[in-house]
């Protein structure tokens, strides 16, 4: 049994014995592994955390030594290299596994105080949304009792751990604020004075704590102290930030000065926490994934999306933006970046709905929507059965709210319609591989490949500028092979950072002799091969057959007349089939000087499709992403298509 504490001084106990590492670097590595428990932590992430942009030549060897020392000191099993990714170990057997490109610490998250804090906080919020205020207050108090000091207070932190520490502290303040609000609503202002005073001393510019302390003091008959709390807040805001207190705090100040009677009891808080219609204002879901730190470019597209979704307008129509683009162009990262920029405009919540598992058939859309409703505070046992009924309930819940919904990896318009919110104050961002299946309303944004300058900028952010300067010609060649696709660029740069002994020249030489290598290089949970396979997987049989025909030529472009001549009779209208393949971003359209349209398959997409049609397996794909083994349902059908098209 292992117990790990990060909320305060680092504490590690194994079977009741203190085994906390004392060496700063060991503590740093362990903290990063714990905060990413049961997930892969890549070598480049660990090196960046330990040495930022200046790893020593012996970085890989040194890191391996740290891993060995952690295994020995904490009695961590090494496990089997073939164990399924992310699987949980037996309760008594935490393990530190070596994975391709990094390491995974497998353990029960209940063993870590930071994860228990998150679980209790979410439980408390769910109880609050269900109307159980007293239970919610107790649960949130238990969550806060896990804190024994500042997050990661005695751990040296690099970029990643600093971000984690900030996030943990912000979540702590959010939970404190919600708990104080609940306790005041329940009339426990006397019991809360000490904790509120301590929180305000620790965060003297936090307006919510100041307001809650003012209310509690006023209810306890200490009006001068309440006014003094306002003066203290204003002094800090003006001196440190050059700001005046918010209008809400200034109104509260005037009410305390006037000794308004409605501030004296819990009814005031209940009134302040409800809308005119009587609906409780409780925290909404906040499900957006973390923003991508190395995001590059797309400013024009981001501005277009933000202008359309974020502006105030009189129309009652629901606002939808669909994001399209070829495989690997970064649609999901773009949608998440845009959603984070729009968060302040949607205070009632942000939902993230990943439909990749629905597209693979491993999950039902009704189950996904049910999970969304649960996040919104509607208990599963109170939800109806059936997709249509769940959709109606979702529209009802969102009718008077301002909620942002991000729907990722859409296959058909019907999938989006099932999760559309019902209020005109809501908005939707949908990433769609299939432009032909888009909705009839809303805006459509097609993401192009990155420019050469943007490609180099992204490479620098992942691999470091020094890597490019050491071998600029080889890096330029690598960027040319990546064709401006962020997925490929991150995969290439990530491989170089994971292999400190490799040069850009060596990798470029490897890729020249092995086209498959670039397709299989992972960037996170995906590779170019898996994302092309996901786009190809749901093509109708006539489209697959036409695609096989187009793969016969590596460079030349096809005219419509050539396709009509070569296409098997009876398969369908050639122009319609070509337009469909263009819409799903597997084929490019080119307009000649004579206004003739020519068609071609992009080089990397072509290489991936040929591998798919040959039936070469790509291996396991983590986190439920599409594996190429399921691209074509029947091997006989695939072979027939290849023979017809002449692909060998």
TrEMBL record:
Domain (OmpR/PhoB-type): residue spans on this chain: 1-107
InterPro entries cross-referenced by the UniProt entry: AAA+_ATPase, AfsR-DnrI-RedD_regulator, BTAD, NB-ARC, OmpR/PhoB-type_DNA-bd, P-loop_NTPase, Sig_transdc_resp-reg_C-effctor, TPR-like_helical_dom_sf
Residue ranges flagged as DNA-binding region: 1-107
Transcription regulation as UniProt keyword: yes
SUPFAM superfamilies: C-terminal effector domain of the bipartite response regulators, P-loop containing nucleoside triphosphate hydrolases, TPR-like
Keywords recorded for this protein, A-Z: DNA-binding, Transcription, Transcription regulation, Two-component regulatory system
Domain of life: Bacteria
Keyword Nucleotide-binding: no
Residue numbers spanned by region Disordered: 267-293
Gene3D superfamilies reported for this sequence: P-loop containing nucleotide triphosphate hydrolases, Tetratricopeptide repeat domain, Winged helix-like DNA-binding domain superfamily/Winged helix DNA-binding domain
Family membership: Belongs to the AfsR/DnrI/RedD regulatory family.
Protein name: AfsR/SARP family transcriptional regulator
UniProt organism field: Streptomyces levis
């Amino acid at each position: 049994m292992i117990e790990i504490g990060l909320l305060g001084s680092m504490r590690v106990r194994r079977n009741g014995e203190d085994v906390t590492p004392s060496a700063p670097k060991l503590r740093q590595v362990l903290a990063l592994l714990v905060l990413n428990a049961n997930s892969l932590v890549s070598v480049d992430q660990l090196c960046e955390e330990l040495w930022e942009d200046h790893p020593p030549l012996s970085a890989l060897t040194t890191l391996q030594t740290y891993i060995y020392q952690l295994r020995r000191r904490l009695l961590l099993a090494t496990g089997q290299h073939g164990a399924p990714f992310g699987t949980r170990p037996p309760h008594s057997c935490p393990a530190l596994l070596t994975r391709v490109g990094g390491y995974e610490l497998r353990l029960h998250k209940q063993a870590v105080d930071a994860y228990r804090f998150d679980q209790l906080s979410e439980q408390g919020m769910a109880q609050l949304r269900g109307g159980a205020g007293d239970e919610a207050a107790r649960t949130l108090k238990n969550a806060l009792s896990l804190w024994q000091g500042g997050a990661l207070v005695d751990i040296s932190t690099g970029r990643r751990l600093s971000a984690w520490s900030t996030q943990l502290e912000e979540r702590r303040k959010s939970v404190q604020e919600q708990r104080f609000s609940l306790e005041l609503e329940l009339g426990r202002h006397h019991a809360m004075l000490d904790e509120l005073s301590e929180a305000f001393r620790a965060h003297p510019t936090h307006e919510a704590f100041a307001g809650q302390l003012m209310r509690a003091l006023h209810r306890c008959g200490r009006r001068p102290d309440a006014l003094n709390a306002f003066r203290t807040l204003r002094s800090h805001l003006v001196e440190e930030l050059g700001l005046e207190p918010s209008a809400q705090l200034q109104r509260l100040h005037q009410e305390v000065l006037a000794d308004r009677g409605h501030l004296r009891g819990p009814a005031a808080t209940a009134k302040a926490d409800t809308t005119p219609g009587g609906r409780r204002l409780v925290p909404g879901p906040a499900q957006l994934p973390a923003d991508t730190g190395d995001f590059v470019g797309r400013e024009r597209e981001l501005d277009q999306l933000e202008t359309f979704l974020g502006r105030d307008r009189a129309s009652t129509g629901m606002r939808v933006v669909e994001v399209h683009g070829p495989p690997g162009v970064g649609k999901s990262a773009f949608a998440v970046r845009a959603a984070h920029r729009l968060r302040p405009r949607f205070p009632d919540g942000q939902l993230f709905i990943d439909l990749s598992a629905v597209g693979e058939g491993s999950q039902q859309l009704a189950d996904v929507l049910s999970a969304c409703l649960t996040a919104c505070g509607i208990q599963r046992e109170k939800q109806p059965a059936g997709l249509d009924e769940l959709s109606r309930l979702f529209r009802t819940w969102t009718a008077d709210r301002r909620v942002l919904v991000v729907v990722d990896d859409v296959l058909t318009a019907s999938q989006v319609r099932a999760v559309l919110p019902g209020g005109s104050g809501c908005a939707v961002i949908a990433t769609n591989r299939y432009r032909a299946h888009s909705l009839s309303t809303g805006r459509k944004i097609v993401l192009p490949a990155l420019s050469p300058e943007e490609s180099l900028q992204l490479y620098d952010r992942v691999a470091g500028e020094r890597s490019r300067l050491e071998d600029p010609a080889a890096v330029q060649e690598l960027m040319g092979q990546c064709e401006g696709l962020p997925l490929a660029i991150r995969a290439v740069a990530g491989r170089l950072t994971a292999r400190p002994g490799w040069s850009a020249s060596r990798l470029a030489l490897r890729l020249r002799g092995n086209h498959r290598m670039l397709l299989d290089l992972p960037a996170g949970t995906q590779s170019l091969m898996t994302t092309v396979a996901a786009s190809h997987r749901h093509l109708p049989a006539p489209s697959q057959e036409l695609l096989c025909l187009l793969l016969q030529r590596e460079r030349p472009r096809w005219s419509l007349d050539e396709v009509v001549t070569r296409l098997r009779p009876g398969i369908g209208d050639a122009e319609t089939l070509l337009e469909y393949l263009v819409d799903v971003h597997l084929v490019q359209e080119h307009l000649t000087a004579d206004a003739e349209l020519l068609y071609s398959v992009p080089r990397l997409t072509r290489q991936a499709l040929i591998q798919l049609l040959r039936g070469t397996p790509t291996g396991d794909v983590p986190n439920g992403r599409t594996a190429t083994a399921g691209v074509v349902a029947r091997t006989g059908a695939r072979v027939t298509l290849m023979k017809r098209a002449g692909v060998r």
